[in-house]
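During the second year of the project, the team shifted from modelling isolated chains to modelling whole assemblies. The rationale, set out in the original proposal, was that interfaces cannot be judged from single-chain predictions alone. As a representative example for this report, we include one of the complexes processed in the last quarter. Its constituent sequences, exactly as entered into the pipeline, are reproduced here:
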Amino acid sequence: MPKSTDKTRIIHPHTYLKSNKIGVGIYLDYASSANPECANPGAIHSLGVREKNKLENARKNVAAILQSQSSEVIFTSGSTESNNLAILGVLNAAKEKIPHFITTNIEHSSVLEIFKYLEEHKKAEVTFVEAEQNGMIDPEKIRKALKPNTVLVSVMYANGEIGTIEPLHAIGKVIRHYNKINSRKILFHTDATQAVNYLPIQVAKLGVDLMSFSSSKFYGPKGIGILYVKKNTPIRKIMFGGDHEFGLRPGTESVILALGLAEALTFTEKIKIKEVKRLVKLRDYFFTELHKIFSSEGPTPVVRGRAQDKKFHEAKFIINGDLKNRLPNNVNITIPNIPGDLLVIELSARGIMASAKSACKMGDEKASYVIKAIDKNIRETDGSIRFSLGRATTKRDIIYTVKVLSQILIKLKKWYTQHT
Amino acid sequence: MPKSTDKTRIIHPHTYLKSNKIGVGIYLDYASSANPECANPGAIHSLGVREKNKLENARKNVAAILQSQSSEVIFTSGSTESNNLAILGVLNAAKEKIPHFITTNIEHSSVLEIFKYLEEHKKAEVTFVEAEQNGMIDPEKIRKALKPNTVLVSVMYANGEIGTIEPLHAIGKVIRHYNKINSRKILFHTDATQAVNYLPIQVAKLGVDLMSFSSSKFYGPKGIGILYVKKNTPIRKIMFGGDHEFGLRPGTESVILALGLAEALTFTEKIKIKEVKRLVKLRDYFFTELHKIFSSEGPTPVVRGRAQDKKFHEAKFIINGDLKNRLPNNVNITIPNIPGDLLVIELSARGIMASAKSACKMGDEKASYVIKAIDKNIRETDGSIRFSLGRATTKRDIIYTVKVLSQILIKLKKWYTQHT
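Output from the structure prediction step:
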């Protein structure tokens, strides 16, 4: 054992610790995390405990906004992982021999692709409820799809491409009613990724058991997301490792990303009402201006809901998605005979960044699968373009954008008239 | 169509774009990524292309260090996900009816737990090769475990707890020999998480098909990792969504984290040789000083390799793991009858951060499973403690730490002597 004389030779901790490089003590846990300032929240030394506290504070702040319990908030790497954990995790826990899932045909690819895989590999039965022409999901169609082996209904809160806000409340009611009558516990999941900036996200009011979202969509850091998991929801992890995140998601949490997410979400909540009002005005102004540049020639613009109109493809532009149940920041139009990618590139060359379809499904099909889903008659030559507004968007930006778009359309007119 | 008179009313792009808030143009792609400065690398507008270029540059830099192709570098959320993708991904692609895997009993929990799950749920056959008393894996034992239905061998590059460097080259040779004779294509995966700071990571030289590592262990940001996947390796994604990362890992990449990883890895490579030399010296000095404080009383300290020695549990301290094949930054000792957690807390109270066992497996068992694996006779009361050194560690830190440890041991002496 150590000699007791050693004791007298020890410098007082404060004297030494203040003078060393780290400034927080002597860090000898580099194998756990190389950066002492971002120690491993699973470590039991004081720096680990400090990080753990920060992490749990971030979780608490998120839970307060969702009006949930802290233990219902799971940090993931983003919406894609959250969606995978929600759906595959419920599948892993399901006792049904062939579990049945209900979803829609306009979900984000991370939801759609899971279900396509499950169906293809016969791991589950899946009903893809088709969206209406305005992009809305009919709760009655969900009701009709419910079966004795249904385990989960997954319907997005708002569609990122066409901005349609889905009737979550009505769908939740349908599920709860079915559960009550049949003594079942069918779960309700929503991908709220595109909704967080503008819509209420208090989980109890929404009536969901599982809700996914991603920090980078509400001005937080990229690389972190949330899966809300209601207490007592039967779900199992889909990756294996340590017992992080209540055993549902292994891997050391990035505390700094969690703090960034919580801070961004707090600010989003704070400005939500005001920002919604501001953007609805801007969005509607955008639509009005678009009408103006098209109205000088050809027939009146046709709104998606009237797609059966024979004159549909004679229209000069079409607004995609419901006009009323619509995200405040979404403007999505189809311009027949002009490819969306071309418009995006022409706009980009003039300093305007828009999108032709989800960046997650680039290059694998010509038209957006969401637009195809709401318009069976769309041709590959009909391009759609999405303008999604945000905190820095001004009326001046819209005026400028519409003018530039008008200029581009004149340039493309030759090509355009050759094809109509 | 637009009136051509509109054209004349357009402000010149540069005049307008310079004056607006974003400074990079008009950003109307908030639904894709809320931050224009971190646009979605999947977007086709100029900001998206810029991000995509940054991402591919980061990938190229990582590939250059690994001496691999860029398309062999997959960004994940960290080592845990990389390990899951490597093992479950190979399982997903396996054609064998019951695929057989070989691993060891001292892998990180993210590898061990996957295999335990696969075995338990009869999704695969798994051989857990036992480490020797010095923590080394015997390539001969791997050879004996190879079977006609073996699809993958997963052996860590270096153990994070006891610092043992495993004989990857010899194990790779054994696998290649078996493959050649039997016309098989058994894959070789290594979890290199703890090795990247100090050991060569050129994949061809290592002879691996798959290699996992995490940015936060080499002073990069937390929340990102790499899975190296050799060209033509049969592997399938484990999460579903967009076609990011060559179809192997869905979810928009965090470009800023990827840049951080690449930068940290580049610097790590640059200082590797010098840092290894410096830390080996410090580590061995640490061991020498530990010997000194224990040598005044009791029998000579016993090194793990000699654990069969009858006097083992009379030893005052035991060095865990091989002394030669050892990470330059690892000091791991067992002090019989003193709980490791207690030591960590006592040290932390004096400003010294060490670790009792992997932070990923806290609270679920008393002693570290790695120490248990190399010492079947260890008692729950025998605590082990790991000091892992790093870039800021100085000789003065070691001197101070050993003194403080000695002081703590004197304090615990009463308790200690009561129990021996």
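Residues 362 and 368 of chain A are 9 Å apart (CA to CA). Residues 1-13, 298-313 of chain A have pLDDT under 50 and may be disordered.
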